[in-house]
Amino acid sequence: MTFSFERVRALVLIQGREFHRDFGTLFLNIIFPVLFVFGLILADLANPTLKFKIGVVDVAGDHASQQFVQALTSSPGMEVTTLSLDRATAALREGEVHVVVVVRDSGFARDAGRIELVSGPRYEPFSRLLLDAVRDRMGRDAHDARIFEYQVKSPPGEVRSEFSFTFPGLLALAMVQLGLFATAVPLLQARDRGTLRYLSLTPLTLGELLVGQVAIRACVAMVQVTAILVAGSFMLDLSAAQWAQVFAVSTLGIVLLVSIGYAIAGMAVNPQAGTAMILIINFAMLLGGNIFLDPRDSTAQYLIACVLPISYLSDMYRQVITGESGVWPAWVDVLAILGFSLLAVVVALRTFRFDTDHNAAPQRRRTASLIRQRS
Q1: One domain for residues 111 and 172
Q2: Are residues 173 and 235 in the same domain?
Q3: Is 81 exposed, middle or buried (0-12, 13-18, 19+ CB in 10 A)?
Q4: pTM to 2 decimal places
């Protein structure tokens, strides 16, 4: 029997109506991730920064530099923290401070003071105004309007915010929902109700069935990703190239998580066992899959992340969106995703069946074959 795109189209439309009627699946796959993004945005807006956090590295370490730090601290709304040079970079990247001020040479009285302001573009204008105000205040006290000079430097690498770290994880979370609750659960339900058995008796070929199943989930995934990116654009400035890269990574995510969904549906002997497997896998991926927790924070988290396929997808999303170097190089992420996908496909091919009755399945397959021959 030849492959029919018309039959695939009809199957996709039928499954699309099922998704539309199933509010639980619709909520978990589209509404919940978008609400989560807006929740993060509202939390960020509802908790504004009350103090401007400055990290000071006093390399000079003399009386003049201490006077400068005191003048900086006396500015209203400032929270000044003394840091070492090594710690300052990490504190800036982790968002513990907004800017870093490095006092290289405190020869202020000789108009030779050298200050380095390490700041990203977001806080640079305010930081310049602050240092100008401190310089004017110290200049009036010392009768020298040019008591020190400062140089602005960009921070090494991207400065991380809580939202920029969490947002890529939400994209990976959406893919997890797609694989577990929009693939494995519907397959288990369809097999339990006998829907898959009836489909095996129709003129649909196995290839048409698989293409139709994957196509509708790919459509759902693209709607997921688009909705989340639109919501995240209120906080992040994403270029067209980044959008395209996110969709490319999402294609790998669809292959990975849909394959895992089929593997779970194949290994589960009944819907109850399948539900237990889904909940356990979902919990493991959320907790250790590089979605909300950084694996680099501890050795145990890193080892757990290495064996969870979603960790590599989260890492790719984070590299594309933030521009930071990931936990692993991008090529390692791609190879890991393809490797886990291949493993899931092999498991699915060996375990997937259209019926929960193992003994009746061969007889029904023979019956389906006879019906096709007669038609």
Answers
A1: no
A2: yes
A3: middle
A4: 0.69
